[in-house]
Amino acid sequence: MKPFLPALLLLAALAGCSSNQKSGSQTPAPSPTPKPTEAETGRIAFQKMYIQARYWTPDAQGFLLESQPTKEISGIGGTSAVWSAHFGSRARRTAKAFVWSGTDAEDAPSRGTSPSSEDSFSPNNSSTQTFDIGFMKADSNQAFNVAQEHGGKALLDKDATVPVSYRAQWSSRDNTLNWQVIYGNSKLIVAVDAATGQFIRVEN
Predict the structure, then answer these.
(1) Which helix (H) or strand (E) holds 9?
(2) How far, in Å, CA of 129 to CA of 189, rounded?
(3) What span, in angstroms and rounded, lies between the C-alpha atoms of 199 and 61?
(4) 147 neighbors 198 (Cβ within 8 angstroms)
(5) C-alpha span between 189 and 51 (Å, rounded)
């Protein structure tokens, strides 16, 4: 029986070496590559949320579109990584907001399109008058260029860190869909016709 002992010890040693080689060859799985931030113009972001709104109710129409500057994307140039849109339904007499986010930044909502809870909606209220996306022929980047010519450039030349936000809403005063280009905390607000891309007025 003794001659078998060295052979058993040799097999055990070989098995240990093989096990060590296998464990040493294993490398940790690489961490997932962070997705790049997406920044969109208002019209493109609105269309993404409009699709989801139509799943909520087929007669959904938008009445307010707003951007949200972040530390990474300040809004200069007419794009934003975060947009929210409010939709109303005449049939249901309810409203619902959707948020689109193209970033994983800490100061932004989760990436993707997410809905809010329903709220009451009055189709006869001038502040919630719905509009057709076809009226938005001039996008937020075009509105930014117009606003730059009416005080925006001078303001950003003094302070390039001023965030720029955008709001699209039907104007009963002008009877058209307007862009409001808002510099900082309402330091300057420029109204631009979303249908024609023409300057309307400086509102602040």
Answers:
(1) helix 4-25
(2) 21
(3) 25
(4) no
(5) 30
- Please identify which residue in the block is written with the tokens 């609105």: 46
Tokens of 53: 């709104």
> Do 152 and 170 touch, CB atoms closer than 8 A?
no
Who's near 105: CB < 8 A, 6+ residues apart?
Answer: 37, 70, 71, 72, 81
pLDDT of the residue at 11: 40
Per-domain boundaries in the chain: 42-202
Q: Indicate yes or no: pTM above 0.85.
A: no
C-alpha to C-alpha distance for 31 and 33, rounded to whole angstroms: 6
Strands 176-183, 188-193: parallel, antiparallel or unpaired by DSSP? antiparallel
Of 200, 137, 168, the closest CA to residue 61 belongs to 168
Whether the predicted pLDDT of 5 surpasses 60: no
Among 2-11, 79-88, 98-107, whose mean pLDDT is lowest? 2-11
Q: Which two tokens stand for residue 125?
A: 């209220």
- Average of pLDDT values for 160-172? 96
Structure tokens at 45: 């972001």
Is residue 29 very low, low, confident or very high in pLDDT (cuts 50, 70, 90)? low
